Amino acid sequence: YAALPILPMGRTETRYHVQIDVDDKAGVLAAVAQAFAEHDVSIQTVRQEGRGDDAQLVVVSHSASDADLAATVESIRRMAFVRDVSSVMRVEGAPE
Fold first, then answer.
1. What is the mean pLDDT of residues 37-62?
2. Domain containing residue 63: CATH number
3. Quick one: residue 85, left, alpha or beta (phi over 0 = left, psi -120 to 50 = alpha)?
């Protein structure tokens, strides 16, 4: 085995799939997108599905560091209209 350096987890980079349950009202998608931008996490795709008074956002990011994504999720969790960040998963092996 080669003596390769091991990166701290916060510096590893991959794409992410983030599922967010939110109030279904104007400005929510823009605020969530702004949180991604503020932490230098670029959005590859986003899907919003309304369900009465709430909606589910599914965001897939471009490659980002684990630390930047964690900061993004923490920022989103603090938003008043966010009911839950119900899933955060790494996306491995898919082309960008």
1. 96
2. 3.30.70.260
3. beta
